[in-house]
Structure formats: C-alpha cells, structure tokens
Specification:
Helix content: 10-25%
Mean pLDDT: 90
Order of helices and strands: HEEEEEEEEEEEEHHEEHEEEEHH
CATH topology of the largest domain: Naphthalene 1,2-dioxygenase Alpha Subunit, Chain A, domain 1
Shape: globular
CATH class of the largest domain: Alpha Beta
Structural class: alpha+beta
CATH superfamily of the largest domain: Naphthalene 1,2-dioxygenase Alpha Subunit, Chain A, domain 1
Strand content: 25-35%
Number of helices: 6
C-alpha cells in the first residue's frame, strides 16, 4: 500500500480538543503537519518553514492569525503566504515561493480532526450524532499495529466470543449473522438485525421492556482506515454510533481513534460507557500488537469463509480504491503541466 495513494484519502490526525492556538505537530504517512485553531478557524500546514525548513510548531500563533516561525521570525498569514521577514525589514519584497504547504482539506467532525493531504477520492462517512445524543471520545491509543488489520478487527464479528470474553463476548454466540451488503462510492455498508440482551437499557431495570430486544447493526467502511458502526435499539428506540479510525503516522506507528455518540443512555452513563469501550479496545490491541503481518489484499493469501463477508469486502474495496487512485495519478502525470487546470499548490481548506 503506497503512501502516495494514501495521500488521496481522509485520515484522523487529532482529537478536536487537542488543537488550539498553540501550533500542534501531528504525523501522517511519515510527514509532520502543524495544526492550529483560533478565531480564524481550523488550519493545517506541512510542519516546515520554507526558509530553513524549521518546524512551524517551534513557533507561535500571532493575534492576527498568522504563524511566526521560531527560527528566524518569518510570518505567514492564514492562507500560508509569507507577509513579513524581519531580517529584510518592513515593506521588503517577499520571495514568491515563501509560502506554506497546505493540505487539500481539513475538517472537524465527531470530535476528531480529519486531514486529506491531496484531493480525497472518497468522502467521509456519515457521522451525524443521533438526535439528542451524547458525544464522548476515547484518548487515542498509539501502538505499533497495522492500520489495515485494526480496521479488519473492527469489522470482524467472529472474534467477539474469544477476544472479548471478559467484556461482551458471550459464550455460545459463535455464529455470525448474515449481512445485507450494499456498495457505496468506494466502500460498503453492511446491515443485519438480531436479538440480544440489552443490559444497558434503563427500561429493563424499570420493568418497562424485556431484556431480550431487537437490534440493527449497520457497519460502514470508507477507505483506507475509517469505519463506523451504528447500533439501533429497535425496541428501546435509541441509537449508538461508534466512529473508529486509524492514523498511519509512519515508521510502523499507528494512532487509534474511537468516538461514541449515544442517545440510548443518559448523559451520566457516558463516562462508564467510555471506560467500557476502552476495555474493549485494549482487548483488541492486545492481540493486534502480536500480529506481525500487514493486511493482505490478495484474497488467495488467506483462507476465508462466509462468516468473513464484511472483512472480505474490506479487502476488495481497499484494493479497488488503491487501483483507482494509482490510475488517476498516472493520468495526471501524463498530462503536460501547461494544460492542467490549476497549479499543484492550489488547495482548498475547509473549516
């Protein structure tokens, strides 16, 4: 999986709460980025001043929204253009190339900051909170795990009774329900309904509803490393949206993000829900840290069964995504630069 192809995708890079007026460094695909947020919005730039390539995160954010490099004091406005070089004095001509490198887009959603280095081929999944929902996020976990294997783990339901025996994996629940799968732009949506024991439903304790209830599970995958799970509690009339994504920092390091958006429990129950979700994640990480492989996309490299339908689709969709991006990159490379519609440096920043 080439990092060049991965640049044409959305990736999580930080929690929303981690970004403020202090330039913050994050890593994505082996490249450092500087993120800031102030009254002028959320912005991101490659963490490198064009002068002597010093990190912008060693500098500061000024009151007018400009970033000042901590090495020689060069200042860059909210668009990334250099506006002042102290060594040359006020009114001096600034070299045209003295500007910062921006990503194609950066947005804030579900308590997570998402960044696309180049124009993203696929859109972000639906991450709208259920009506009246309470939002909570886990502290991101950094681990030497393969991001593809982590997404595979999230979409894989057959491991529940074994890896999660201490949390929610019930003995005797080995069988995997059949999922109705529909394809999206580059990913897929998988839906199934089943009965389960809803111990978290306050209505069960109050005697309003039975313990055994109906639940609809809707998985959505967007390449390369984003997935969501929406749990609709049909009898209790509530929903739980889990956003799961992995940041490939580079050098074998990944940062794992989990966001919960629930309206099926009261606000005071969210802290316990986050603690429980952290326990579930730690169970997954315990086995993922022992994995020594990256997720293969060639289907013949592993043995599959009908219980692996979601994770087979994961491999197919990711392979298709990479093939499309590589094809587009080849076409762009073959077009003479003079005939392209826009310069390579043109980028849209969303906030």
């Amino acid at each position: 999986m080439t990092s060049e192809a991965m640049r044409h995708a959305w990736h999580p890079v930080a929690l929303s709460t981690e970004i403020g007026a202090l330039p913050t460094q994050v890593w994505l695909l082996g490249e450092a980025w500087a993120l800031v947020r102030d009254d002028f919005g959320l912005r991101a730039f490659v963490d490198r001043c064009p002068h002597r390539l010093a990190p912008l995160t060693a500098g500061r954010l000024c009151g007018d929204g400009s970033i000042q490099c901590g090495y020689h004091g060069w200042q860059f406005d909210v668009t990334g253009s250099c506006t002042f070089i102290p060594a040359l004095g006020v009114g001096a001509t600034v070299p045209p190339r003295a500007r910062l490198t921006s990503p194609a887009a950066v947005v804030d959603s579900a308590g997570i900051v998402w960044l696309a280095p180049e124009s993203p081929v696929a859109s972000l999944p639906e991450m709208t909170a259920p009506p009246g929902g309470h939002i909570g996020t886990l502290v991101p976990s950094r681990a030497p795990v393969d991001p593809g294997e982590m997404i595979d783990n999230f979409l894989d339901v057959a491991h529940f009774p074994f890896v999660h025996a201490a949390t929610f994996g019930l003995e005797g629940s080995d069988a995997v329900e059949d999922y109705e799968i529909s394809h999206t732009e580059f990913g897929f949506i998988g839906v199934t309904e089943h009965e389960f024991a809803n111990h978290e439903d306050p209505g069960v304790k109050a005697g309003i509803r039975p313990l055994r209830q109906r639940r609809r599970m809707t998985y959505e995958y967007v390449p390369p490393y984003i997935a969501t799970l929406r749990l609709d509690y049909i009898d209790a009339n509530g929903s739980n949206l889990i956003v799961f994504a992995v940041q490939p920092e580079g050098g074998g390091s990944s940062r794992v993000y989990t966001s919960l958006q629930r309206n099926d429990v009261p606000a005071e129950a969210m802290p316990d829900a986050l603690v429980f979700e952290q326990r579930v994640l730690e169970e997954d990480l315990a086995i993922q840290r022992r994995m020594s492989t990256t997720m293969p996309l060639e289907l013949t490299a592993e043995v599959h069964t009908r219980a692996d339908r979601l994770t087979i689709e994961l491999r197919r969709c990711l392979a298709r995504f990479l093939a499309v991006v590589r094809t587009e990159e080849t076409v762009i490379a073959e077009v003479p630069s003079s005939s392209r519609n826009a310069p390579h440096g043109a980028r849209e920043i969303l906030d």
